[in-house]
From TrEMBL:
Gene3D superfamilies referenced in this protein's UniProt entry, alphabetically: 3.40.630.30
A GO molecular function held by the record: acyltransferase activity
Gene source species: Micromonospora rubida
Protein name: GNAT family N-acetyltransferase
Domain N-acetyltransferase span(s) in chain numbering: 5-179
Length: 192
């Protein structure tokens, strides 16, 4: 882990002033990306996600520099998250009520600081006190380092999904039970 790194949670209102930094890191991470990873599409995604009830962002900084972040939100009853599933899942698997599943939308670390434990710390900080039953995320099946990390953190591949967004790739759907439901604070949590 990086010395002097700080984690901070942000609500939508608190994160509004960070949007350009969040987009900047996204563009750095996906510098070789295709149309799906464009600045315009990501700004629209981020703006839409920030309006979700329960949206939570955790950033990692060293000094004033943003070195990583993760964000997500609980899936509401009328979610489109599961639209595009390509393989069957058990009946009721995609039923949501706003309290069953927490969806992680983005987890990224600046390329020069990867494989130093930052992603894991961000992941654990975001999920550590969640009250939902489970968490889900969509992972690039060809991102082998991320897939290996997720498996080591307790994630399981359930199916594949291709979102309805323009130019969207097909993702692996990963699920992880949330064992620390409403557990005690991790001791290093800071609210902005």
């Amino acid at each position: 882990m990086i010395e002097n790194m700080k984690l901070r949670h942000h609500t939508t209102a608190q994160a509004a002033r960070l949007v350009d930094q969040l987009v900047g890191l996204y563009l750095e991470v996906y510098a070789d990306g295709d149309e799906f990873h464009s600045e315009d599409r990501y700004r629209r995604q981020l703006a839409g996600h920030m309006q979700r009830d329960g949206w939570d962002l955790v950033i990692a900084t060293v000094g004033e520099e943003l070195v990583g972040y993760i964000y997500g939100f609980p899936l509401p009853a009328e979610t489109g998250w599961w639209t595009g599933i390509q393989e069957p899942v058990p009946a009721g698997y995609t039923d949501e009520d706003g309290e069953r599943t927490f969806a992680i939308s983005e987890l990224m670390v600046t390329p020069g600081l990867r494989r130093r434990g930052i992603a894991r710390v961000l992941h654990d900080e975001l999920l550590g006190e969640r009250a939902e039953e489970r968490s889900t995320l969509l992972a690039d099946p060809d991102n082998f380092p991320a897939q290996a990390a997720y498996r080591s953190w307790g994630w399981q591949r359930i199916t594949k999904l291709r979102p309805s967004w323009e130019h969207a790739p097909t993702f692996d759907v990963l699920i992880r039970p949330l064992k620390n439901r409403a557990g005690p604070s991790s001791g290093h949590r800071t609210r902005a």
